[in-house]
Design goal:
Blueprint lengths: L2 H9 L4 E10 L9 E4 L4 E3 L4 H16 L6 E5 H5 L6 E9 L4 H8 L4 E6 L3 H10 L4 E7 L13 E5 L15 E4 L4 H17 L5 E4 L3 H13 L4 H4 L2 E2 L12 H14 L2
Parallel strand pairs: 6-7, 6-9, 7-8, 9-10, 10-11
Antiparallel strand pairs: 1-2, 1-5, 2-3, 4-5
C-alpha cells in the first residue's frame, strides 16, 4: 500500500489537513503541487522533510485543533527556518474529512507517463517492481500465456498479445517503449512496428531495446534490409540503461533503465 492509499484509508476514519506546496521560488526541497496529509497522530507523504516539514506538520495539527488558524504560510527557507536551500515556499492548508476522500484521491493522484514494456522475463519483472512507485503507467505485454505474476501493482496493466507486435498500434500517444521479449525474432518485430509507427505518427518519445552491441549490429543490418533509413534506425536506443552501470543482474538493469527513463521525462 502506498502513502496515498494509506492517507485515504485513514481519512475515512478521521479528519486531516492536506498540506500542499502552492508556489516556490529559488532552491527548494519539493516543487509546486507536492502534498502531504497530516492527522492528529502521524502523517502520510512528504513536502521535503527538514524544518519546513516540521513546522508545516505543527501548523496542520494546530488547524485540526483550532480551525481559525490561517490556511496559507510563506517560508523563506534560509532566514526563517535555518535551511540552506535559499529559496521560498508558500504552503496551503486545507481541512479534509471522510466526505473529501474522492476529491483528495483525485488531487493526490500522480501524473503518470504511459510506458509499454514488452517482455515478462526476469528483467521485465524487475522493471515492474522498480517502476511501480515512479511516474509511469505501465502496460506490460507478452505473447505467452500465464507469464504474468499474480501480485502486479495497480498501475500496471497486463496484456496478452499474439503476435506481440500488434499491440504497438494500440499504444497511447506519447508512450515510452521497452523491448525485452524472450525471442530476438519477437524483439525485431516490435522494433519494426515501432519504427513504422514513428514514420506514420512520430509519437513514441523513447524506444529502447535490451541487448548487446553485437545484437544491435545484427538488428541494424536487418532493419536496413527492410528499407529503414539511418535517421529512422537511430530512433532506437540499444543497449538501454545509464552508461557506466555494468551489472547484468535483472535488478541492476532495472534501476539503470528506470534512471534513463526518468532523465527523459
Amino acid at each position: 500500500m502506498n502513502w496515498i492509499e494509506q492517507a485515504l484509508q485513514r481519512l475515512a476514519l478521521g479528519p486531516a489537513v492536506c498540506v500542499t506546496v502552492k508556489s516556490t521560488r529559488g532552491s527548494v526541497p519539493r516543487g509546486a503541487g507536492t502534498s502531504m496529509v497530516v492527522f492528529k497522530e502521524g502523517e502520510c507523504g512528504t513536502i521535503g522533510g527538514g524544518h519546513l516539514e516540521f513546522q508545516a506538520i505543527a501548523h496542520a495539527r494546530q488547524l485540526l485543533a483550532d480551525q481559525t488558524q490561517v490556511l496559507s504560510l510563506q517560508h523563506v527557507l534560509g532566514p526563517s527556518l535555518g535551511q540552506c536551500c535559499g529559496g521560498s515556499v508558500e504552503l496551503n492548508f486545507s481541512l479534509k474529512d471522510a466526505r473529501d476522500v474522492s476529491d483528495l484521491q483525485a488531487q493526490l493522484a500522480p501524473s503518470r507517463a504511459p510506458l509499454a514494456l514488452f517482455g515478462g522475463g526476469h528483467v521485465g519483472k524487475a522493471l515492474v517492481t522498480v517502476l511501480s512507485p515512479l511516474p509511469f503507467a505501465v502496460r506490460w505485454i507478452d505473447s505467452r500465456d500465464e507469464i504474468f505474476p499474480s501480485d502486479v501493482p495497480p498501475q500496471v496493466v497486463c496484456e496478452h498479445s499474439s503476435p506481440v507486435h500488434m499491440a504497438v498500434n494500440e499504444l497511447p500517444s506519447g508512450s515510452r517503449v521497452l523491448i525485452m521479449s524472450f525471442s530476438h525474432a519477437e524483439d525485431l518485430d516490435v522494433v519494426i512496428a515501432c519504427l513504422r509507427r514513428l514514420r506514420e505518427r512520430d509519437d513514441l518519445p523513447f524506444v529502447g531495446l535490451i541487448g548487446s552491441k553485437t545484437k544491435w549490429a545484427t538488428f541494424r543490418h536487418r532493419l536496413e534490409a527492410r528499407g529503414f533509413a539511418e535517421a529512422e534506425i537511430k530512433r532506437i536506443t540499444c543497449p538501454i540503461g545509464v552508461s557506466g552501470i555494468e551489472g547484468k543482474e535483472p535488478e541492476v538493469i532495472a534501476v539503470s533503465v528506470a534512471a534513463q527513463l526518468l532523465r527523459k521525462l
